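Fold this complex.
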Amino acid sequence: NAGVTQTPKFQVLKTGQSMTLQCAQDMNHNSMYWYRQDPGMGLRLIYYSASEGTTDKGEVPNGYNVSRLNKREFSLRLESAAPSQTSVYFCASSSLTGAPGQYFGPGTRLTVL
Amino acid sequence: AQKITQTQPGMFVQEKEAVTLDCTYDTSDPSYGLFWYKQPSSGEMIFLIYQGSYDQQNATEGRYSLNFQKARKSANLVISASQLGDSAMYFCAMREYAGGTSYGKLTFGQGTILTVHP
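Structure:
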């Protein structure tokens, strides 16, 4: 039982490059989330998926797209990376019923030069 | 207005002593949940404790307890008998149920860095 996994752990991009961050959970959770964490700040929600087949914008969606591939997987895509997207990205999942907490992946540290 | 406010950027405590980390929140939703997460220097987010707005008693999980004062809209985390391994960033977060469904979205405070001295 791996919980929430994210790949890659680290990534360096040049401005304008694209990439996809992968996230998978094995807890049979319905809902999944992408957050970003900037230095000295709490986490801010980028996008979320309440259930398979649905996605919605969070607080800071500009410059990102997401895909809920199936119940287990939720990917985040940067189409044209900008230095302002340098951050640590966390994926999380939760159950709509049962335990109320969100469970987080280990994070991806992204630097855009 | 900030939904979650953590006014202590940093806190220091002596090993084996208790420490309180402050959190105030702002919501007009009668149904909500409050969470505390720990983020050690390794970076992962660890779920510590949860308090529902209708819970009559304060939540406890081992050495962690949540001092929930609903009228004051505060949800302070109390760590008893601090250990060196408690040194970390601590985040308070809120989930609003907004008519029954919020899909678990969390709003986070800015965090408090706790340092435990030997």
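Chain B has a mean pLDDT of 91.
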